[in-house]
Write a structure and sequence with these properties.
single chain, 147 residues, two-stranded antiparallel ribbon, 10 strands, 48% strand, elongated
Length: 147
């Protein structure tokens, strides 16, 4: 049965605070690009048959993925400014973090440990809400789990 992608949450491990912990990043709009890519190595040689190239599998990599956040900036709202502060602190850090995505529809959750916040971009189009796109780059294999 299909599941609706409503209620997804993103949590980032904030190691920049006194007691490191997962911090929920609010107002997630979209999560795109979670997946794997496998390097394919060309091993074609003069004796390869049928005129077709042959390939062997190389290294597997977790793809960088993007998360779009709707940022309703209200400087008086601590939760909204905290999102910005956490994202910037993790983007500026050279230390890997962790990312946990929770699927509210009862599907498995995915944890990328370690994972870097490799890009934070903020857009403020005229007549629309301010949005941030955050690129998370996993280092290694993600873990799919029910918790």
């Amino acid at each position: 049965m299909a599941k609706v992608a409503i209620g997804l949450t993103l949590e980032l491990w904030d190691h920049t605070i006194g007691t490191p912990a997962y911090v929920a990043i609010g107002e997630v709009k979209d999560i795109n690009g979670i997946g794997l890519t496998k390097e394919m190595i060309d091993d074609t040689h003069q004796g390869s048959s049928n005129g077709f190239r042959t390939k062997i599998a190389g290294l597997i990599e977790a793809k960088p993925f993007s998360v779009t956040l709707q940022l309703n900036y209200d400087i008086a709202n601590a939760a909204q400014t905290e999102n910005h502060d956490v994202l910037n602190a993790l983007a500026e850090s050279r230390t890997a973090s962790k990312a946990r995505i929770r699927f509210a529809s009862g599907g498995p959750n995915v944890i990328f440990d370690p994972c870097h916040v490799s890009d934070v971009t903020i857009d403020g189009p005229l007549g629309d809400v301010v949005m941030a796109t955050v690129t998370l780059t996993p280092s290694g294999k993600g873990t799919w789990a029910s918790t």
